[in-house]
Design a protein that fits this description.
The complex is a heterodimer.
Chain A lengths: L2 H34 L29 E7 L25 H4 L23 E4 L4 E4 L12 E8 L5 H10 L9 H9 L9 E4 L29 E3 L17 H22 L2 H23 L7 H7 L9 H13 L4 E6 L8 H25 L6 E6 L3 E6 L10 E4 L3 E7 L7 E2 L1 E2 L6 E3 L2 E2 H11 L9 E3 L2 E3 L16
Parallel strand pairs in A: 1-7, 1-8, 4-12, 4-15, 5-6, 5-7
Antiparallel strand pairs in A: 2-3, 4-11, 8-11, 9-10, 13-14, 16-17
Chain B lengths: L11 E2 L8 E2 L12 E15 L5 E2 L5 E8 L7 E8 L2 E9 L15 E4 L8 E6 L10 E2 L1 E19 L12 H8 L9 H8 L7 H15 L6 H22 L15 E4 L7 E5 L17 H9 L6 H14 L20 H13 L4 H9 L2 H4 L6 H6 L12 E2 L2 H12 L57 H4 L19 H9 L1 H17 L4 H13 L5 H20 L1 H8 L12 H16 L5 E2 L1
Parallel strand pairs in B: 7-8
Antiparallel strand pairs in B: 1-3, 2-3, 3-11, 4-10, 5-9, 5-11, 6-7, 6-11, 12-13, 14-15
Helix pairs in contact in B: 6-7, 6-8, 11-14, 13-14, 14-15, 14-18, 16-17, 16-18, 17-18
Classes of the chains: A alpha/beta, B alpha+beta.
C-alpha cells in the first residue's frame, strides 16, 4: 500500500477514535444517568465500530466473515486419520522403496536410521456420510461431519522442523518477524466486536503424556504490522483477559467513579494540549470498563442449553479443555470477533504413536465436530470459516521400533491433511491425491501459501493486493513467489 | 655446635644440677675453636635445647661427629648425644655403659650403643651414622643434647659430614631423577607425567621435558621444593578467590573470527542446502569499501565508525531523536536507503551526526544536547491549526508528545511509589506475572516452563531487569509494545489499547504502586487534602493541580474516605494488594482513599506521556 494512503488511514482511525471519545463520552453519561441513576457510567454507541476495516476492505463480498483456526500443533499423522492407504498393509516392515523416498531430506531424528520400514496404520478406516469419506476409527465424531468439511490431502510446506514450520504456517515465512494470518485479517478487516479483541488466541490444555512442542507468540504476532493487531492470548478460566478483574477490594462502582474522574481530567488535558491521542485513551479506558462486564459474560456458559453441552461432551465443563475452548470459540465469533486461533499441542508422535495419537484424538475429536455442528445449527457456519490441521505431516516409515501395534512417525513436509469447512468452502469433498505411501503428491498440490491465499479469498481479500510496506518490500502473507487460490475448494 | 649453642637456642640443664658452662684454655684447651662445653655430674646430667634455634637438615649417608674428652680422675659411666626432630627426642647415640642413661628403648635408634667410652684424658672424635639413630635424609634437627652419667665430660664441635654427591642424587639432580625413573613407574608422580618419565630421554619433546622439570623442581628436589609451599598456598588462595569472582560474573557468549575463515555462499532462496555464488566479506558498493585485505569483524567495526561512513552517526542520532520525539528526523529510521524517507531537517541531522562523532560518540552528551534544545523544551500544545497543517509534528512547531515506553511506564509508577529498588546489574528478575503465561506454551521439560515469581526486591527492580522468555514475554511489557526480541526492532509501536488501561488500573504492580504512592502522599504531603494533592500532582506530573482538577479529585477522595471510614473491611481489602505491607501507623481508611487517588493519577494520560 502507498505509504501516504497508509498514513491517512491511520490518521483517520485516530481521529475516529477521538471523535468517539468526544461525542459519546457525554452522551453516554446522560444515558446512564437515566439507566442507573448513579451518574457514574459511560458507554459507547453500539453501532460504532472500534476495530474499523481498512478503506476498500473487503476487496469483494466475502463468503466468510470470521475465521476459527484449529491448529493441531506438532503435526497429526495423516496416515492414521484421513489419508486412507488400504494397500499399505502388505508392505508392513518392508523398506520404503527408494523410488518413493527419492531425495527428500529427512530430519536429524531419522536420517541416521539404517532402515525405513513401512508402518501401515493400525487403525480401521470406514466410510462415512453421503460423500463416503474414509475416516479412521480415531475420529468417530469428525466422521459425523464429513459432509460439511472439505478434506485436503495434499497440503505441503517448506519446513521440516516445528519452529520454522509453525512460523511458516502462520506468517508465510520461516524467519520470525512477519505478520501472522490473524493479525493480517484484524488489520485488513477490523472486527465487528467493540468490546472484545479482533483476534483472540486460545491455548487449551493437552494430554499430559503427549509430546508437546513449544508455542511462540509470533504465531499470533503482528510482526511488522501495528502492534494493536497482535492476537490476544486468552487464558483458561474465569479471567481469560489479563488484568481484567479489579484489584482486591475495588468494586465496579468504585471503578466507575474513578474512570469518570479520570475521563474528566484527561478531557481537561486534551483541552490544554490538543493531542487527539488523549481522546483515544479516554475511549480505550471506557472499552476496558465494558470488557470487564462483557468478558465474564463471554466465559459464563450457564446460558448454554443441555443439547449444546452434550454435543461438546463432558470436557466442556473442564476449565481450559479443548472442548471448552471450542465452545468459547463459537461464543467469540458469535460476538463478532474476527479470528479465533485455537492452539492444541501434543501431536508430535515420534514414538508410541498409537498411544499418543489415541489420546490426542480423544481430547479433540468431539470438540471439533461439535463446533461444526454447533455453528451449523446457529446458521453461523455459512459465513464462518473453520480450518483444521498441523504444520506438516508424518512419515509412512516408522521412526524407531516397528511392531504391529506400536510405531512412531517422523516429520513429513511433502504432504499432509488439513480440513476446511464453512464460509466459501465446498462441503463434503476430498481434494488432492497422494501416492500409495502418502509420501508424495500425485495430484492437486496445495502449498501453504495457496492455502493462505484461499483463506484470504474466502474472507473477501485478494491476497496479492493485500500488502504492507516493511523493510523495503511490499510484504504479503503469501510471500513473493506465486501463490494461488485453490478454486477446487471453493463452493 | 662450636663455642656455643646456636643463636636463639635456650639451652637447659636438669633441675638441681650446675648451670651451663663453656670453658676456654685456662681450664681445658678446646679441640677446636675458642671454648668447649664442660659438665660434671652425679647420675644423669645434660645440656640440651629443642626449638628456638636454627634447624639443620639431615644429609643422606651423613656421619655425625662430636669431639669428647673424659677426665680419668672422674670417669663417667656413659656419655650420650641426642637429637630432637618434629617427632620428638627419638635419636640417641651412647658410648659406654648401655642403659645406664635410661632414655629410649635399648637396641633401637632411640638408644643406640655406638661404642665404648673413649680413652680418658684426650680429645676423641666420636662418629655415628645418621641412619643408626633413625635420622632420615631431609629430617630437620632442631635440638640436641649432651648427656652423661657421672663424671666430668668436655664436649666440642658437634657436626655432621656426608659424602655429598648431588649430581647422582635423584632428590636433587633432575638428570639423576630422570634416569632413576626410566622404564619404571615412579610413585606419587601424576599418571601423565609418569608416562613421560618412563620414556627414554631422547623420545621426549622439549616441552615434555620442561613439564617434568617443573614437576621435579616443585615436588621432588629437596633443595627447591620447600620454597614452593608458601607460593602454592598463596596460589590456592588466589585461585579460590578468582573462582568465586568468576562465579559471580554472569557468562555471555562472544563471537570471534575463525582462524581460517570458512567459505560463504549466497544460499538460494535461503535454503541451507542450496549454496549459490561464493562470496567474500564486503560492503555494499554504494558505501565506502572495507580497506583491509582479508576483512574481519574488527575491520567491520572500524569501518562502521570511520568518518567516511555516512550512515553510523546519522542513524544513531536519528534513533535517539526518535526516542525523544516519537518520530526520527528521518521517519524511516530503519531505512536510510533509496526507499527510505528523506530527512525533515537534513542540516540538523548532519550537525548532530558530526558533533556526535567528534565528541567521541558521547551518548550522554548527545542526549544532553537534545533535551536542552528549544525543540524539545517547547510546549506540546497542538492548536487545531497546527494539527491541521502538521498532524505528525514533523516540522517541530510544537514539542513532542508520546506515550512512555513499556519499561518506563512501570518504572515511573514504582518510582513515585517509593517501591523502586535502584540496584544496578545482576541477574534477571521475575516480577509479578499473572498465572498461565509461560505454562501453556513451554516445553514440558523446559527450565522456563513454570514461572516462579520472585519475592522482595525482585518485584521492584527496574523493568530492564525483567527476565525475558522470548516465546512468552512478560505481558506487562508486551501490552505496551515492547518487542519480544525475536527479531531486531528499530522502532516501537505506540499503540493505545483497552488492555493497557486494564493493566494500569488493575495489575497488582500498578495498584500496589498506587498504595505506595499514597503512603508517600500521607507521609510527605502535609496535613490537608489540598496540600497532599499538591504533593501528589507535583510528584507525578511535575506541576500543581489546576483548581478545577483539584475540585474533581477531592470529590472523589471524599467519596472514598466516607466509604472506607464506614467500611473498615473494604479499606483493608484495598490495602491488601501486593506483597509489601502498609505501615501500621497510617489510618487504613485514609490510606485506602488516597490509594484510589494514586491509582487515578498513575492512569492519567499526562502521566504516561512525555508532554
Amino acid at each position: 500500500m502507498n505509504p501516504f494512503i497508509e498514513h491517512e488511514i491511520n490518521l483517520t482511525r485516530r481521529q475516529f477514535f477521538g471523535n468517539v471519545g468526544l461525542r459519546f463520552g457525554g452522551l453516554a453519561l446522560a444515558q446512564l444517568l437515566g439507566q442507573q441513576g448513579s451518574g457514574l457510567a459511560a458507554t459507547q454507541a453500539a453501532d460504532q465500530q472500534v476495530h474499523a476495516a481498512l478503506p476498500g476492505f473487503p476487496h469483494f463480498p466475502p463468503r466468510a466473515k470470521r475465521l476459527i483456526y484449529l491448529h493441531m500443533n506438532g503435526a497429526p499423522s495423516q496416515l492414521d486419520l484421513l489419508d486412507y492407504k488400504p494397500d499399505l498393509a502388505r508392505f508392513f516392515n518392508k523398506d520404503l522403496p527408494e523410488s518413493v523416498r527419492g531425495n527428500q531430506r529427512l530430519t536429524g531424528m531419522t536420517s541416521g536410521q539404517k532402515r525405513f520400514p513401512v508402518a501401515p496404520s493400525k487403525y480401521k478406516f470406514t466410510q462415512h456420510g453421503q460423500c463416503g469419506r474414509w475416516v479412521s476409527e480415531l475420529l468417530p465424531h469428525t466422521a459425523k461431519v464429513v459432509d460439511d468439511i472439505a478434506v485436503i490431502k495434499t497440503v505441503h510446506t517448506n519446513a521440516i522442523n516445528h519452529d520454522p514450520a509453525c512460523t511458516f504456517l502462520f506468517t508465510g515465512a520461516e524467519i520470525p518477524g512477519k505478520a501472522s494470518l490473524g493479525s493480517w485479517l484484524a488489520y485488513g478487516l477490523g472486527s465487528e466486536s467493540n468490546d472484545l479483541p479482533a483476534f483472540v488466541v486460545l491455548t487449551p490444555k493437552w494430554p499430559e503424556g503427549s509430546n508437546g512442542q513449544a508455542l511462540f507468540s509470533r504465531m499470533w504476532g503482528s510482526g511488522f504490522l501495528p502492534g494493536r493487531h497482535n492476537g490476544v492470548a486468552f487464558r483458561a478460566g474465569a479471567d481469560p483477559v489479563l488484568y481484567l478483574p479489579n484489584p482486591n477490594g475495588v468494586q465496579r462502582d468504585d471503578r466507575r467513579l474513578l474512570l469518570d474522574t479520570l475521563g474528566q481530567l484527561n478531557q481537561q488535558q486534551h483541552e490544554r494540549l490538543g493531542d487527539p491521542e488523549t481522546l483515544t485513551r479516554i475511549a480505550q479506558y471506557e472499552m476496558a470498563f465494558r470488557m470487564q462486564a462483557s468478558v465474564p459474560d463471554l466465559v459464563d456458559f450457564k446460558s448454554e442449553d443441555a443439547a449444546t453441552r452434550e454435543m461438546y461432551g463432558p470436557d466442556v465443563d473442564k476449565p481450559g479443555s479443548f472442548a471448552q475452548s471450542c465452545l468459547l470459540a463459537r461464543r467469540l465469533v458469535e460476538r463478532g470477533v474476527r479470528v479465533v486461533q485455537l492452539m492444541h499441542r501434543g501431536w508430535d508422535s515420534h514414538s508410541n504413536l498409537p498411544r499418543e495419537l489415541g489420546n490426542q484424538c480423544a481430547d479433540t475429536d468431539r470438540g471439533c465436530a461439535a463446533l461444526i455442528q454447533d455453528l451449523k445449527a446457529r446458521g453461523l457456519l455459512e459465513d464462518t470459516l473453520v480450518v483444521w490441521g498441523g504444520e506438516f505431516g508424518r512419515t509412512v516409515y516408522s521412526q524407531g521400533t516397528l511392531t504391529q501395534d506400536n510405531y512412531g512417525r517422523d516429520h513429513h513436509p511433502r504432504n499432509y491433511c488439513m480440513w476446511m469447512a464453512g464460509g466459501g468452502i465446498k462441503p463434503g469433498i476430498s481434494y488432492g491425491e497422494t501416492d500409495d505411501f502418502s509420501y508424495n503428491i500425485v495430484e492437486n498440490p496445495v502449498h501453504l501459501n495457496d492455502l493462505n491465499a484461499t483463506i484470504l479469498h474466502c474472507m473477501g481479500i485478494h491476497h496479492e493486493k493485500f500488502t504492507f510496506k516493511a523493510q523495503g518490500l511490499d510484504q504479503r502473507l503469501t510471500g513473493v513467489e506465486p501463490a494461488k487460490v485453490v478454486k477446487g475448494l471453493l463452493a | 655446635m662450636e663455642d656455643s649453642f646456636p643463636a636463639g637456642a635456650k639451652p637447659l640443664v636438669n633441675p638441681g644440677t650446675p648451670a651451663l658452662m663453656f670453658v676456654g684454655n685456662e681450664d681445658m684447651p678446646p679441640a677446636s675453636g675458642e671454648r668447649c662445653l664442660k659438665r660434671t655430674a652425679k647420675g644423669i646430667g645434660q645440656d640440651h635445647f629443642a626449638g628456638g634455634g636454627a634447624s639443620f637438615g639431615v644429609p643422606a649417608g651423613g656421619i655425625i661427629s662430636v669431639m669428647a674428652r673424659t677426665d680419668g680422675a672422674d670417669q663417667p659411666r656413659a656419655i650420650m648425644i641426642q637429637f630432637h626432630t618434629a617427632a620428638g627426642w627419638k635419636s640417641r647415640a651412647v658410648w659406654g655403659e648401655e642403659g645406664i642413661i635410661n632414655y629410649g628403648k635399648l637396641g633401637t635408634p632411640e638408644h643406640y650403643l655406638a661404642g665404648p667410652l673413649p680413652a680418658a684424658g684426650s680429645w676423641t672424635q666420636l662418629d655415628v651414622p645418621v641412619e643408626a639413630i633413625g635420622l632420615k635424609p631431609g629430617d630437620k634437627v632442631d635440638g640436641y643434647a649432651f648427656t652423661q652419667f657421672d663424671g666430668t665430660v668436655y664436649w666440642d664441635r658437634l657436626a655432621v659430614r656426608s659424602m655429598d654427591d648431588p649430581a647422582h642424587d635423584p632428590a636433587r639432580s633432575f638428570a639423576a631423577w630422570l634416569k632413576a625413573g626410566e622404564g619404571k613407574d615412579t610413585p606419587n608422580v601424576p599418571p601423565d607425567l609418569n608416562k613421560l618419565l618412563k620414556q627414554k630421554g631422547d623420545q621426549r619433546k622439549i616441552e615434555e621435558t620442561h613439564r617434568l622439570r617443573a614437576y621435579f623442581v616443585q615436588n621432588v628436589c629437596v633443595t627447591t621444593r620447600d620454597g614452593f609451599d608458601s607460593v602454592e598456598k598463596e596460589i590456592a588462595a588466589l585461585e579460590k578467590e578468582r573462582d568465586a569472582l568468576d562465579k559471580s560474573i554472569p557468562a555471555t557468549f562472544v563471537m570471534k573470527d575463525l582462524d581460517k575463515p570458512r567459505d560463504s555462499f549466497v544460499m538460494e532462496r535461503g535454503q541451507y542446502d542450496k549454496p549459490g555464488e561464493k562470496v567474500q566479506p564486503a560492503t555494499p558498493a554504494v558505501l565506502p569499501p572495507l580497506v583491509a585485505e582479508n576483512p574481519k569483524r574488527l575491520d567491520l567495526a572500524r569501518w562502521l565508525v570511520d568518518e567516511r561512513n555516512p550512515l553510523t552517526a546519522r542513524v544513531t542520532v536519528n534513533r535517539f531523536w526518535q526516542q525523544f520525539f516519537g518520530v526520527g528526523l528521518v521517519k524511516t529510521s530503519a531505512d536510510f536507503g533509496s526507499q527510505g524517507e528523506p530527512p525533515s531537517h537534513p542540516e540538523l541531522l548532519d550537525w548532530l551526526a558530526v558533533t556526535f562523532r567528534e565528541s567521541g560518540w558521547d551518548m550522554k552528551q548527545l542526549v544532553r544536547t537534545i533535551v536542552l534544545s528549544s525543540a524539545w523544551q517547547q510546549s506540546s500544545r497542538a492548536t487545531p491549526e497546527l494539527l491541521a497543517r502538521d498532524p505528525e509534528n514533523r516540522l517541530l512547531a510544537r514539542g513532542p508528545r508520546v506515550r512512555l515506553n513499556a519499561e518506563a511506564v512501570r518504572d515511573e509508577a514504582l518510582f513515585v511509589s517509593g517501591l523502586l529498588v535502584e540496584k544496578l546489574g545482576g541477574k534477571g528478575v521475575k516480577t509479578y506475572q499473572p498465572p498461565n503465561i509461560w505454562e501453556p506454551v513451554g516445553y514440558k521439560d523446559s527450565n522456563t516452563r513454570n514461572y516462579r515469581q520472585d519475592t522482595g526486591d525482585g518485584l521492584y527492580r527496574r523493568s530492564i531487569y525483567t527476565f525475558l522468555k522470548r516465546t512468552a514475554p512478560a505481558p506487562f511489557l508486551m501490552n505496551f509494545d515492547a518487542p519480544a526480541r525475536e527479531e531486531f526492532c528499530t522502532k516501537r509501536e505506540r499503540s493505545d489499547t483497552p488492555l493497557q488501561a486494564l493493566q494500569l488500573l488493575n495489575d497488582v504492580q500498578f495498584f500496589e504502586a498506587a498504595r505506595g504512592f499514597a503512603q508517600r502522599i500521607l507521609t510527605y504531603g502535609g496535613q490537608t487534602p489540598s496540600s497532599r494533592l499538591h504533593f501528589a500532582f507535583r510528584t507525578t506530573l511535575a506541576r500543581p493541580p489546576e483548581p478545577r482538577e483539584a475540585e474533581r479529585v477531592l470529590v472523589m477522595l471524599d467519596h472514598f474516605l466516607t466509604k472506607y471510614r464506614a467500611d473498615a473491611n473494604a479499606a483493608k481489602a484495598v490495602l491488601s494488594n501486593g506483597e509489601s505491607k502498609p505501615p501500621a501507623h497510617l489510618d487504613p481508611a485514609e490510606l485506602a482513599a488516597w490509594t484510589q487517588v494514586g491509582n487515578l493519577l498513575l492512569n492519567l494520560d499526562e502521566n504516561v506521556s512525555i508532554n
